[in-house]
Structure formats: structure tokens, C-alpha cells
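Q: Second attempt. The first request was missing the SMILES, so the protein and S-adenosylmethionine are both included now.
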Amino acid sequence: MTVPLAQHQAEIERNLRAWDGKPLLQNIYAGFYRRILALIDPAIPGRIVEIGSGIGNLKAHLPGAVASDLFPNPWLDLACDGYELPFRSASLSHLVLFDVFHHLQAPNAFLREARRVLAPSGRLILFEPYISWTSYPIYGLAHHEPVAWGKPINRAEALPRPRDYYAAQGNATRLFFRQELPGWPEGWNLLHAEAFSCFYYLLSGGYSKRAVYPARWLEALQRLEVRLSSWPRLFAGRCLIGLRPA
Ligand SMILES: C[S@@+](CC[C@H](N)C(=O)[O-])C[C@H]1O[C@@H](n2cnc3c(N)ncnc32)[C@H](O)[C@@H]1O
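A: Got both inputs this time. The predicted holo structure:
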């Protein structure tokens, strides 16, 4: 059964309602954004654009970034589709996608467009779920989006309209860490691929569920997770990927 693309807007509205009432999640995301910011190189000429900004939180940490999404919400700078970006070739320094890559049914079609708009020294930064032995059951059971482990990944270079809602939480792990498609992604150099443990996030309930630990435990959990991150296949729950056109 297909789900209409408008499902994203329903989720954006739900997330917006949850965000203000959940300082724990705001603290966790602040740490995630710091990781992303560490991959931004201000020396690269061109604008920084976030694709699929949702409720637009990155901008609080990176005020110069252009916030965009499929839907023209008032807090965004631009409505646009990652498969058809309204930017001149080689004009952007960075593209940032937070929890968006696993919604791209045809990753190659997006990568082709990303390569077009990025400057030769530009960077594509992806922040995604990571599927490990321990995060798999949590993403699989507690989150409504499919992990889609083992399902075929569309390798087409274009995705015709109309487009439906798509989600496959396992795609970044499969493509960037398990290297399911040898030599992929063609035309890109991998600058950074890091998977880290974050039970403090997985057990926070995210946008849609209640946290299963008190907010005052966050710092202690984060310290513990630095150790657990040494065994990403076992404990990791998130990943950060940086790419540059080859
Ligand atoms: C899981 S949400 C993440 C939102 C936000 N980045 C965050 O972390 O809270 C995925 C977002 O990607 C957007 N999206 C999905 N497909 C897209 C596409 N082809 N182009 C641009 N945005 C897209 C959706 O509208 C949605 O806002």
C-alpha cells in the first residue's frame, strides 16, 4: 500500500507540537548538531543548504544555513525537493540532511543532483539512524518507519513523479557501512563515516514517545556511550557521514 507524500507534513506538525515540551530531546539534538557542525568547513565558498529541514532546528545552531523542505512552512526559507534543487551548478558549499537520506527512495538520483549543485570542494553531510544488533529491535519495534533491512534499494538515476512517502531506516548503514553495493557511491569520496552509540537518544522516546529515563541522567549516559561507541556493530544507534565530489 502506498502512503502519500503529505504524510511528511503530518509528521512535521506532530514533531513541532512535541518539540517545545521536550527539553531532553532538545539537549540531545544540540549534541547531534554539534557533530554536524564539526564537518562544516567555512573556507568552502557558497551557501549551506539544509534539505528536509522539517521543523527547522538546525538553523538555531547554524544561522547562516538555508532551511528547506518539500512543504512551504513559515519557519523555512525555501520549499524544494532534494531530487530537483533550485540552485545553480557548483554554487553550494554544503548540503546537510538530518534524517532525510532514509526517505530518499532513489539515493542515486539525489546524489546526482547533490553533485551538480555542490562546489568541487563542497560537502554533503548526512545524519542517519545506524542499525546495529541493539538498535535494530528499537528502530524496528518502537518506530513507525520500516528498517527495510534486506529490501532492494532503488538504484535508478531519476525518480519520476508522482512520488510517494518512502522510509527505509537501514539504508545508510547498508550503503555506507556494510558496503552492500561495491564501489558505491560512484563519483564521491567518503570523508567521514562514524557510527556511535546513543541509547540516551533511543530511550528518549524521540518526538513521539515518552522517555524511559529521567532527563538528569543524560550527561552520565552520554559519558558511558563514549565507551560503547568502540563497538559500533553492537551498540551504535546513529551515524554521521561526510562526502565530497570526487
Ligand atoms: C524525518 S524528517 C526529518 C526532519 C528534520 N531534518 C529533523 O531532523 O527533524 C524527514 C524530512 O525530509 C523531508 N523530505 C522527504 N523527502 C524529501 C525530498 N525528496 N526532498 C526534500 N525533503 C524531503 C520531509 O518532508 C521531512 O521533513
